Amino acid sequence: MLTAPTGPPLPEALARLLRHEVGDLLQVIYSVVGLMQERVPANSLERRLLGDLKGRAETCRQELDAAVDLVCPFTIQRTQFDLTALTSSMVGPLRKRYSARSIEVDAPEPAIVEADSQRLGGALSLLIVAMCQEAAREVQVTIRHASDPGANILWSVRRDGLPPTAEQLGGLERPFVSTRYALFGLAVALLRRVAEAHGGSLEAKPFPETGIEVRLLLPREGQGEQDQ
Question: pLDDT tens for residues 107-119?
Fold first, then answer.
């Protein structure tokens, strides 16, 4: 008698295998480059080049995690944490990596949310990296207590530089269609999925000749779907 195969669909299984095998390799690269950094003088060209390579390995790992999460179900594990503190912890290392950019956080007070800090943090970090890559000079992250019904926290990130064209903007959430704005599209697609899982929402708004802004509305306590 023939029986139906069990387990996840083939694309999902391949995605999880890719995350495991390639993810381990990227972690090895990240660790080895970190050890090499310790063997060269501080503020040297070699140290800066190794730091850039280490950052690229970390971004590749984040991209891999994001791609897998777009095709596989995931579970939200909510805890209370300060979104302002989480954002600041992500921005600190990026200031060193993108020293030619001004990366600022405008958050005058703590923003306590009940969310999955690891999953939300991963998506936010990937988006900030994408903004830094495309920015001309500045990236600005803003956190506010929003007045929108059902959305208590407004988290937004804006970069200067040329905005995407209408055609590019239409493909921002299709990260596997084109290499142009691919990282940004991947980050936006993942963050929207994570936001909706928390009962929130996401929008991207271009500004003529001055860049683009992504706005995340996130409830402090949401009843979003647990398994996405």
Answer: 978 888 999 999 9
Co-location of 110 and 212 in the same domain? yes
Measure the CA–CA gap between 210 and 48, rounded to whole angstroms: 30
Q: Name the 3-class secondary structure at 180.
A: coil
Please tell me whether residues 56 and 87 are part of one structural domain: no
CA 172 to chain centre: 14
Can you tell me the distance from the alpha carbon of 194 to that of 12, in angstroms, rounded to the nearest whole number?
18
Q: Is the pLDDT of residue 180 over 90?
A: no
Burial class (CB in 10 A: 0-12, 13-18, 19+), 125: buried
Predicted confidence band of residue 70 (pLDDT cuts 50, 70, 90) = confident
Instruction: Read off the DSSP letter of residue 153.
Output: E
Say whether both 67 and 96 belong to one domain: no
Dump pLDDT digits (tens) for 189-199.
889 999 999 99
Range of the domain at 56: 10-71
In a domain, 62, yes or no: yes
Chain position carrying tokens 């660790």: 31
